[in-house]
């Protein structure tokens, strides 16, 4: 349909309204964002008016966020410790400060998919920018395909999408997006509910990608992530993965009044160690997003927290000194006092 000036005027008004609402929400929930992220949001919203890679807005967005030669800055926080004999409030404080610590600042950090819950951050600074033929693995789709569609629309990556929970059979969503009804687990198995799970090693072996570079791996698998992360670090299977993103859930989901509780000191320390193991195999966090829908007020510290976080990592084995600056930062305070 050919758009006349009245259509463009109406679309512009809608676009401005949506932008104002999102900016207000940004301030309300104090999400991790900056003016550059808001600027990148604007062309994405415009592109939604006509979702096609031939659309000039999409072409402009792709060009802007693929060709910026902005480097990486490594932040040195020093060693961070968390042990069961620390005071309970200190354990909680250190754990959440660790979640919200950015080890690397990506100069060209792009949000694809939803600009809030359901979207994912991708570092486009070299050597991580998505370029055809890029390869993306995505586990946990639900009904939200916006991230996968953006990766396809803007960068023409090959996307392998998996989810055993949505009742869909294997199919091609596009010429480059393939869906399969399998889940990601710590081991290859079939769950009691009939879901077929595979380890990440089994997935990439079956797809013929065992030794192929995977540009981006993301998973949102509703509390199963903890066992999966442990298996990924122990199996030494992430050496060919350039970027890694996942959502953590501090309690099994769905979180209800019946099962909601505060984590024990031991649980905080265990989850801290699982995440810290990623650093041991070369991964550094470049962004995080707390989920405000998982918000709660801590009974230990009285602080407003979230039980759900998206965490975004990059594999530093792919980085050379040409693209890396270094900067010191204060260490996280810690206490060794026991209760």
Architecture blueprint of SSEs:
Elements: H1 5-29, H2 35-47, H3 56-67, E1 72-76, H4 88-99, E2 104-106, E3 109-112, E4 120-123, E5 135-139, H5 146-155, E6 158-162, E7 171-172, E8 177-180, E9 183-184, E10 189-190, E11 196-198, H6 200-206, E12 216-219, H7 225-235, E13 243-249, H8 265-280, E14 283-290, E15 295-297, E16 304-306, E17 308-315, E18 324-328
Parallel strand pairs: 1-18, 5-6, 5-12, 6-8, 9-11, 12-13
Antiparallel strand pairs: 1-2, 3-4, 7-8, 10-11, 13-17, 14-17, 15-16
In short:
The protein is 31% helix and 23% strand. It has 339 residues and is α/β, with parallel strands linked by helices.
Describe the structure.
The protein has 339 residues and is α/β, with parallel strands linked by helices. It folds into two domains: 5-64; 72-328, Rossmann fold. The protein contains eight helices and 18 strands. It has helices at residues 5-29, 35-47, 56-67, 88-99, 146-155, 200-206, 225-235, 265-280, and strands at 72-76, 104-106, 109-112, 120-123, 135-139, 158-162, 171-172, 177-180, 183-184, 189-190, 196-198, 216-219, 243-249, 283-290, 295-297, 304-306, 308-315, 324-328. Strands 7-8-6-5-12-13-17-14 form an eight-stranded mixed beta sheet, with helices on both faces. Strand 5 (135-139), helix 5 (146-155) and strand 6 form a beta-alpha-beta unit. The protein starts with a helix and ends in an 11-residue tail after the last strand.
